[in-house]
Amino acid sequence: MTVIITIDGIAASGKSSVASRVASKLKVPYISSGYLYRAVTYLVYVTQTDPADQDAIVAVLQTHPLTLIPRPEENEVWQGEENYTPFLHTTEVDLTVSEIAQHPKVRTWVTEQLKDLPPPFVAEGRDMGTAVFPHARHKFYLIASPRVRAQRRAKERPEDLESIQAALEMRDREDRVQSRPAEDAHVVETSDMTLEQVVEHILKGVYL
Ligand code: ADP
Ligand code: CDP
To answer: Which CATH number among 3.40.1360.10, 3.40.50.300, 3.30.565.10, 3.80.10.10 corresponds to the domain 4-204?
Structure first.
């Protein structure tokens, strides 16, 4: 089996939750590229690297290598002996991650970590179906209204709904370039769908 399924989409559209459930139904691993971008951002913060300096960021990635572990329930990222996973989904990381993800050298580094992984798997992020796995057999792109996405994320963050929505919309703008559907992706508008309905919808179109 050499099948790759990509699930891209905008912030808080349900990529990770959907990808992990689809992968578990198909009994294949799922891979979250967002975890790697978030881990690079956290590493930049702990090493006090300049977030605007992509050469410095790539240099720090050489001295502090990050490893993505595709656990079925939730991916993990480790830096040496330290598990970075609990520090990746914070408001602070949310605020800086798009700036760091815009650096071409950082994108090349993340792509290098992922592109030779052995299929089958489900990969989720922004550019899985375009830049990283353009040859994937099945491609999906999840969207939902800003309000619905903010309501979903509000269950996971301490801030109020309005500031969560404003932060999501700002990240939508900053991620615009690297976050667009592949021409052959199925766009799924999930605002009025439950998680289970999205998973079922995707599984209907997928064969390994
Ligand atoms: P992303 O990976 O795109 O940021 P997540 O998978 O983290 O999105 O989803 C954000 C939150 O929204 C999670 O709490 C998840 O359970 C919830 N969620 C995702 N999709 C749906 C849906 N279709 N209906 C209701 N809640 C959803
Ligand atoms: O879903 P959400 O945007 O909250 O988080 P994520 O998927 O973990 O991605 C975090 C950030 O990483 C995004 O806002 C993008 O800036 C970046 N990212 C990217 O540029 N390309 C990817 N393939 C995945 C994430």
So the answer is: 3.40.50.300
CA nearest 49: which of 37, 58, 57? 57
| Probe residue for ligand 2, chosen from 175, 176, 190 as the CB with the greatest number of ligand atoms within 8 Å | 175
Q: 206: pLDDT confidence band, cut at 50, 70 and 90?
A: confident
Ligand nearest to the CA of 178: 2
Q: Which numbered ligand comes closest to the C-alpha of 198?
A: 1
Task: Decide whether any atom of ligand 1 lies within 6 Å of the 156 Cβ.
Answer: yes
Furthest C-alpha separation in the chain: 46
ipTM: 0.96
Mean pLDDT calculated for residue range 57-72: 94
118 CA from centroid of ligand 2 (Å): 22
Burial code (b: 16+ CB inside 10 Å, e: under 16) for 152-175 equals bbbeebeeeeeebbebbeebbebb
All structural domains of the chain with their residue ranges: 4-204
C-alpha count within 13 angstroms, C-beta hemisphere, residue 181? 13
Q: Please give the number of the atom of ligand 2 that sits closest to the Cα of 100.
A: 16
Task: Return the SS3 of 8.
Answer: strand
Q: State in Å: Cα 143 to ligand 1 middle.
A: 11
26 Cα: distance to centroid of ligand 2 (angstroms): 24
Q: What is the mean pLDDT of residues 160-178?
A: 91
